[in-house]
Amino acid sequence: MFGEVYDVIVVGGGHAGAEAAAAAANMGSKTLLATMNLQTIGQMSCNPAMGGIAKGQIVREIDALGGYSGIISDKSAIQFKMLNKSKGPAMWSPRVQSDRMRFAEEWRLALERTPNVDFYQEMIQGLLLEGNKVVGVKTSLGIDIRGKAVVLTNGTFLNGLIHIGDKQFGGGRAGEKAATGITEQLTKLGFESGRMKTGTPPRVDGRSLDYSKMIVQPGDAIPEKFSYLDTPVLTEQRDCYMSHTSTLVHDLLKEGFDRSPMFNGRIKSIGPRYCPSIEDKINRFADKDSHQLFVEPEGWDTVEVYVNGFSTSLPEDVQFKALRSVVGFEKVKFFRPGYAIEYDYFPPTQLKHTLETKLVENLYFAGQINGTTGYEEAASQGLMAGINAHLKLNEKEPFILKRDEAYIGVLIDDLITKGTEEPYRMFTSRAEYRTLLRQDNADLRLTPKSYAIGLASEDRLKRREEKERRSAALVSFFKKTSVIPEDINPILDRVNSSLVKQSDKMFKVFSRPNVTMEHMMELKSVSDYVAENDLGREEMEQAEIQIKYAGYIEKEKNNADKLHRLENVKIPDNFDYRKLKSLSFEAREKLEAIRPVTISQASRISGVSPSDISVLLVYMGR
Ligand code: FAD
C-alpha cells in the first residue's frame, strides 16, 4: 500500500466511512479505508439498533442504491418491528434490534469481500494538499498516502472529550482515543468548526436483572426485513423489556446534579434534542414522575444489555445507585457507566450537494462530522460521498437526490442549505413529500438511478422491475374484475362500510377506508390470482398502497412537479448578490454564504423571504 496512489481514501471506518468505501470501490475506484482500529469497523457507538421512524426509510434507500447497511442489518438482526403500522404507509418505519458484535463483524467481512478496498489501521492526522486540491493524507507515524479524493468520516472522534461526572478525558468513544490534527489543519485552511455533544447510557449485565418485573416487548409476529435482496428473515427473535423510572430514581439522580457536567457548565455544546439524557428529561419535564426505559439485549448470545432511555453523564456512583432503584434493576451490575462526549463538527453549509467541500477540491465530509447524529444519517451520507467522489474523478455528472426522490435528498439538502446548530436527526416531518418517500418503494424510486451510474447490480434492477410489473398487474386485475354483492357485502358489513346493491369493480370497493388486502384475499378470485401468480408480500403491499393512496400520491407528485420548475431555474456559480439592491440585507448575506445552485434551494434558506425570491426570479427573467 505504501507508494500506491489511491483514487479514493476514506478516513474512518464507522457507518459513513464503511458505506463510502464500499460505494467507491464497487463503482471501480481503487479505495483505501484508513481507520484508527480495524476491529471497530461498523461499530455501533450507542444503541444496538438500526432503523426506526424515518431512519428505517433511509436504510431501505441505502439498500435500494446498492449500499450495505440494510444487508448487514438483516444478517445481524435479533428482533424486527415495523413501527407506526397503525398509521398510513408513509409513516411505516422498519426497525431492527441488532447483535452489536455481529453487526461490526458482518461489516468487516463485507468490506473484505469487496474488490478494490485496501485497509490500513492508523490515525490520520492531516491532509496532503496541492493548491486548493487534496492529494492524500498524512498518518500519525508521518506516512504520506496519496489519493485523488479524500472522504473524511471522523464521527465523534475529532478532539473528542468524554465526560462522566466531574471526570473528563480525551477519547473518541469509550476506550478509544480521540483524533487530533485534522480540525486544526482545516480551520487554518479557513473552515469553520463547532462543538456538539452526545451521550450514551450504561451497559449492564443481563444476568443481574429481574425480567419478571418488567413488561415484555416482543418483535413482530411476522417479521420483515430491510434489504430488497435475498437476505435472511428472522425465524426466531429475542425479546426486549420495558421498565420505568420513579420519583425515587429521580431524587437519587438529582443528588448528582451539582457534579453533572451538563449543569455545572463544563459541557457547553448542544446535544441531540430528541435523545436527551435522563438528567435532562428530569430537569425539562419536572412534572413527570416516570420515564420509560427500554431494556435491549446486545446480541443473541451475550448477556450485555443496553438501557435505552437512561443516557447520562452523571457520576458513575450516582448512575449506579439510581439504576438500582428501577424496578427489575435492584441487583444490577454495570458493564460500563454512561457518559457524554463532546466533539468537533464542521457546519455543513460549507459543502456542495455532492458533500464535496467548497473550499478544498476533491475533499468530502460525511456523517457525524457534518453535525448529524445516527448511524443511518451517517451511512447514507457516506454512500453519497463515496459515489460522488468516484463520479467526479471519472468526470461524470454528480449524483444528487432531490427532496421528492429520497429522504437522503432531504437530509443532504437540509444540511447544506440550512446548516444545523444541534445534532441533526431525520424525522418524517422534515420531508414535505413523505407520501412519495415510503419504505415500501425505495427500490422503485432509486434502484434504476443507481444502476444508471454503475452501482446497483443488474440483479437488483431485475428484482425491482419484476416487483413493479407484478404489482401493477395486480392493480389492473382489481380494476378489471368485478365483485358481486353476495361475496363482498359480508366483508363490508364487518368493517362498517355501506353495502353494495349490484356488482361493482373490485378497485372501487378496495379503495374504501377499512377494506384491506387481507379482506380482499377472502374473495376466491383474488386469492386464486395471488396463488396462480405466486405473488409475495411486497408485491401485494405495493398494489394495496397504489390503490388506497392513489389520490394522495397524485397530489404530492403534482406539488413536487411545481417545485421542479423552480429547481430548473439555476443560479450562476459566481452570481453577485450585491448588485441586487432590493434583496434584504439578511438574504444577501445568507445567499452569499450558502451560494444556492437553484432558486428552489434559495427559497429553503432561512432568512430568504418570498419577496427575496421574487427579486431573484425577476432578475433571472422569470
Ligand atoms: P463513527 O461511527 O463515530 O465512526 C468514526 C470512525 O472514524 C471510527 O471508526 C474512528 O475510529 C474513525 N476515525 C476517526 N478519526 C479518525 C482519524 N483521524 N484517523 C483514522 N480513523 C479515524 N446517535 C443517535 O442517533 N442517538 C444517540 O443517542 C447517540 N448517542 C451516541 C452516544 C455516544 C457516546 C456516541 C459516541 C455516539 C452516539 N450516537 C448517537 C451517534 C452515532 O454513533 C453516530 O451518529 C454514528 O456512529 C456516526 O457515524 P460516523 O460514521 O459519522 O462516525
From TrEMBL:
UniProt keyword NAD, yes or no: yes
An annotated GO BP: tRNA wobble uridine modification
GO cellular component, as recorded: cytosol
Keywords: Cytoplasm, FAD, Flavoprotein, NAD, tRNA processing
Record localization: Cytoplasm
Any one GO molecular function term: flavin adenine dinucleotide binding
Binding site for FAD: G12, G13, G14, H15, A16, G17
Sequence ranges assigned to domain tRNA uridine 5-carboxymethylaminomethyl modification enzyme C-terminal subdomain in this UniProt record: 547-618
Cofactor needs: FAD
Keyword Cytoplasm: yes
Gene3D superfamilies on file: FAD/NAD(P)-binding domain, GidA associated domain, C-terminal subdomain, tRNA uridine 5-carboxymethylaminomethyl modification enzyme MnmG/GidA
Ligand binding (NAD(+)): 271-285
Pfam families according to UniProt: GIDA, GIDA_C_1st, SAM_GIDA_C
Protein purpose: NAD-binding protein involved in the addition of a carboxymethylaminomethyl (cmnm) group at the wobble position (U34) of certain tRNAs, forming tRNA-cmnm(5)s(2)U34.
Similarity section: Belongs to the MnmG family.
Subunit structure: Homodimer. Heterotetramer of two MnmE and two MnmG subunits.
Annotated protein name in UniProt: tRNA uridine 5-carboxymethylaminomethyl modification enzyme MnmG
Record gene name: mnmG
